[in-house]
Design goal:
By secondary structure, this protein is of the alpha+beta class. It is 23% helix and 33% strand. Strand 5 (102-104) and strand 6 form a beta hairpin. Keywords: Glutamine amidotransferase.
Length: 254
């Protein structure tokens, strides 16, 4: 299972969340405590919004803790809205194209979890990706397929309904193909202003997801960044957290 972080609020240096906290995202890449595996060393990625509407991306196949370039960039890049992800592969190749976050126009998305039996129904699942978006797909992960599906399902008009429909399609295909493995998912999607964070599982073992709003800053993360969890709130299972910049607007049932 991967670990990820979404931030929105006052402009900060990326290092303030990637490196400085006691349980920073880079620390979680080595010692995750709420994942199936403790080490997330199959690449990483950071996406941020600066002076343009489209996000910048930096993705690399080496472990996050072992890339001095990430440290240098995080020391210098400031942003009020960014995603970061450390990857533990569930079977697909370790390549830049398979590292999160994924970006299209002003949108970014990232995912943690697994689509059980994906290899058995990959083609019918990908039929829910338009030709335009399929042409932009560079990797082979189920995560990227889910991201591009959302555009055909109405992401730009109604992100919450698009996410709900995506879950319905996956679970329906699993049933059709007699897949018994679970669909487990935490996913974050943003247009550069709003963030939509899903926590879901078709069984009782949804991946962990927390959020905290403090001093004009919103952080949504796979695991709390501090040893003291008092100020961290769990996103309920089968719910979507919706935030507008640093403010959590609502948390709605899937």
């Amino acid at each position: 299972m991967c670990r990820w972080l979404a931030y929105s609020g006052d402009e900060i240096f990326l290092e303030e969340l990637l490196f400085k906290p006691e349980n920073s995202l880079v620390e979680q890449s080595l010692h995750a405590t709420e994942a199936k595996v403790a080490t997330n060393g199959d690449g990483f990625g950071v996406g941020w919004y600066g002076q343009k509407e489209i996000p910048g991306l930096y993705r690399e196949i080496m472990p996050a803790w072992n890339d001095c370039n990430l440290q240098h960039l995080a020391n210098q890049i400031r942003s009020s809205h960014f995603f970061a992800h450390v990857r533990a592969s569930t079977g697909t190749a370790t390549s830049r194209a398979n590292c999160h976050p994924f970006a299209y126009d002003n949108w970014m998305g990232m995912h943690n979890g697994q689509v059980g039996g994906y290899e058995h129904f990959r083609r019918p699942l990908e039929a829910h990706i338009t030709d335009e978006h399929y042409a932009k797909r560079m990797g082979t992960t189920d995560s990227e397929a889910l991201f591009y599906m959302l555009f055909k399902l109405g992401l730009k008009r109604d992100p919450v309904n698009a996410i709900r429909t995506m879950v319905e399609i996956v679970t329906s295909l699993q049933k059709q193909y007699h897949i018994t493995e679970a669909f487990r998912c935490t996913m974050a999607i943003t247009d550069g202003t709003r963030i939509y964070c899903l926590r879901y599982s078709s069984d009782r073992y949804a991946p962990s997801l927390y959020w905290r709003h403090q001093d004009g800053r919103l952080v949504v993360v796979s695991e709390p960044l501090t040893d003291d969890h008092t100020d961290w709130n769990k996103v309920p299972e089968s719910h979507i957290l919706i935030a507008n910049r640093a403010d959590v607007e609502e948390i709605v049932a899937l």
